[in-house]
Amino acid sequence: MTRVTQARRSPAAGSGRRSSDVAVLPNPPPGTRLDAIRAHLEGAGAPAYRFRQLVRCLTDRGVARFADMEELPAALRRDLTERFGPAVLPLTPVVTEAAPQVEKVLFATRSGARAETVLSRYRAGWSSMCVSSQAGCGLGCTFCATGAVGLVRNLTADEIHGQVVHPHWRAGGRALPDSVAFMGMGEALANPHVLPALRLLTSPGYGGISPRRITVSTVGFTPGLERLVREQPRVTLTLSVHSPFAEQRAELIPLERRFPLAGNLAVLDRHVAAVRRKVYLAYLLIAGVNDSADHLAALARLVQERPRPELFHVSVIRYNAASGADPSYRAPAVEEVAAFVARLRALGVRATRRRQFGASIDAACGQLHARYLLAARFPGTG
Ligand code: SF4
User: Fold this and answer.
1) H helices, E strands: number in the chain
2) How confident is the model over 190-214, as a mean pLDDT?
3) Which of 3-12, 119-128, 176-185 is the most confident on average?
4) Residue 9, pLDDT above cutoff 50
5) In angstroms, what is the span from residue 337 Cα to ligand 1's centroid?
């Protein structure tokens, strides 16, 4: 642990606690690039405050290139550049798309893998970021653009944290996002690097985002879910249901065959009883597939059977045709989604429709990456 001694406030304040505000800057998780930089500075005999200055440049001011960190001596900047490359963060934006209230960026990692990130800005001034946990995904959900491209690799903790604090979002002194959702590419709980990434995002100085404002979404990777509720019990959880019927759910989410919904719900039952906090069940509504009266009744029963049904909230999402997903799937009408939600509520289930922005840029995460990969594999399709 090192103590922050300077308290100069930056005009580019983040939403979380800035590194200049915190009394103690914890060491980054072992194995991360930030920890390697810290250890390198220590080994080179640099005073401890140099690392704090570097972190402050990144998270308070959105400066990621060592050469631009004016607080550091020129020789140290050159040394860091020689040792770690030009920037703290291992990400470079390669494609951006914007629509009112939403911007999507495809980042390239140093190894050439891709990470897709979406930032939504609400009129009330609130901002929310959707990050990727894997480049591609190997779980093959049939409604998902990312599933169609397969797994490239797990993203590292630095690559996940870097999506949130990247200078790309900080132009004009913009703050860090108010909330972060692991709802982009990849199954977050299948990637062990998500836990150190959460530690970075929630640690004062590196992100300082409250765990309650971080949502981890899973299709039901039970071992990862058990570990997450043990190690990060304050993080908000969303479990994708998408069908209350095991056979059909396995068609939509093949992982159901390995880790059935019932086992994941049992983990959540224990979790909500322990922390007395709400969890979310996501329900992707696909026209003619999972929107029948039988589905609705079974979904309502699934919630009502929980020991603490009041702590389960169903979030209904309108299907958005995705590049590479099963072409037979269709989006339901907006009114049908509203009616589905209303009927769930009439049955006593807490339910809302999840708001989506940016239909014109396929704002669901993974679609920009899917188009990029499909275009690379099959020129002319992008
Ligand atoms: S929905 Fe999630 S887990 Fe399923 S294929 Fe897509 S990214 Fe992977």
Assistant:
1) 12, 14
2) 96
3) 176-185
4) no
5) 22
